[in-house]
Records
---
Amino acid sequence: RKHDLLVDLVRKDQDHNRRLQQKSVQNKLREQRQQITRAKKYHNDYHVQHRARLMRARTKEERMFRQLFEEGLGLQKLRLREQRAYAKEQQLEHQRRHQDQIESLENYYKDQALLKMKRELRSRMEREIRDLQRIIIQNDEDDHFQDLEVQRLRNRVHMASFQYNTSYLH
């Protein structure tokens, strides 16, 4: 009976030890699962933070590149405006020179035409004066007639002179 009690006691002790071992194994497994869960959570948090850092860095880089691009674009726009202004200035200068040349040619031809008109007027007046002189010489015999003729010729000379002066002024 003592033996049975002892065997029973040893069996209970073994059962108890087994249960303790099982509990210990279960606790270790639970501890391992918790560690794995914590490690996964840490790993996920690390990856999320790492991605966030990378995204911030990428956003910062993109912002810098966008700013550089906008500054470069601004410089190109400024250069383009300057080139357009320079081209317009050159075009205006060319047009002004061209207009000056045209006006110079017009003035030259006007002056030539005026000179030609003056020469023609002078030669016509000289012809008329010669004709008048011839008439005066031919009509020298009659004083009265001659006085009238002289008066008429003077009037014509005055008129021609007036026309010459008037056209010369214009």
---
Amino acid sequence: CTGNGICKCRVCECFPNFTGSACDCSLDTTPCMASNGQICNGRGTCECGTCNCTDPKFQGPTCEMCQTCLGVCAEHKDCVQCRAFNKGEKKETCEQECMHFNMTRVESRDKLPQPGQPDPLSHCKEKDVDDCWFYFTYSVNSNGEANVHVVG
């Protein structure tokens, strides 16, 4: 019973919070919690502690990554700008609003992570407050940690 139940007459009797014929399905929804507090970002179901994304555009451990959505780059643009360059619309509120990702600076665009890595990756090209282009990537790893690489 995978250590999550007791075998009685060749049938597993599962401990609380476990189900399945071998008690190998956790009913704990904590790993499915998205950063907005919703289970699977409201775009999937939590099955055995893993999100099954029902909206095909969304993927990742908590259904928060959307490669085809325009939103990923635009959504994080202001936070990347204030964290990397100390400017932009969120400059004053950067500490409160923009600490939800790990940030790494790279020297040039060819040093940014490239597609083909295991985590879904968005390449972003956005204009800053001075009307100059800046480049960054946004990805979420299997632990649900957001990672930003920015040229600067």
---
Amino acid sequence: QICLSLVRLLFYLAHSPLGSIVLLDFQPRQFVMVDGNLKVTDLDDASTEELSCKEDNDCTLDFPTKSFPLKCSVVGKCEGINEKKNLFNAYRYFFTYLLPHSAPLALRPFLSDILNATGDLRYGINETLKAFERVLHLYTSGLYLQKRPLHLKDYISLKGFRMVEGEDYKCWPSYSHLGCLLSVHSAEEAAAICNSQSQCQSFIVTQRRTWTG
């Protein structure tokens, strides 16, 4: 949710009415979540200036661990430098910490592709947003669950009952440190997860909903 919201924000900055905007002080502390959307809190260090150049050699985008050669455009500006700077900062401050964790197994290869492509700046912001939207579609539609054996038929459904407190076990990743609380697309996915964990004998489907509904 955080990474997708950040990419949508960077897409807007890359195509803003003022031109491509770069955030010069790109740090996690410069952002807050408001109603599930990432917002920039400090615009003092935002700029629409793109680096001037005479030749391609003038257009190297330098970071502490990597450098990227860019093209000098016919108007004497380093092509896409603001967009690429924002995107690589998103990769090193957000994507590397958030994308590899907690996603359903079937979606992790797609997120790894995004991680690798933005880390090498093979993707621009348009391609990155498109890739994130594809993952979101697979997740919200449940398409990532296709071609799996059915496990729910092995369980008995009891409505209106609650398991005795203290019978839960701890798992990772979990929304609660007291037990095993996971998000699933359906009861069928819950059954598949429970079936794969030897400690799991039963599961409860609650009314809680994730940000995707």
---
Amino acid sequence: PRLKETSGWQQAFSSPRLDWVIERVALNAKVLGGSLGDHDKMVAAASCSEIILWALQADGNGSEIGVFHLGVPVEALFFVGNQLIATSHTGKIGVWNAVTKHWQIQDVVPINSYDAAGTFLLLGCNNGSIYYVDVQKFPLRMKDNDLLVTELYRDPSEDAVTALSVYLT
């Protein structure tokens, strides 16, 4: 839905009927001047390990961008800029890049917490480490085409990072 001050709430998009229960939803309406052109608003829905991503037009119609599979149950679904992120506590992250139109799955250490700051995705993991990925640059390692996940901090006692809150000025 969208709110118009003169007429209240109005339906902005209705997906086709899905054969599964929607467990997670993510909405992105902040992509300005992006590579999607008129498709600057996106909505994603997830159930178990499947994710459907739609681009929304101003007239209320939507077009399916794709169906993606994480391989494990999706526990968090959100946008960082115009990149769609799916995470699982099992240690998998999936990233859909709006520029390259590429879906990348990466195995990492089991994830306990996450936060986003600017274009950075930060992951708090059960081994006491905080990892980050600059999802705007969508960095891939040359040798194996894996997502470049960088360790930012490691707790000497390896206590799990159970909460993250990041603020960049």
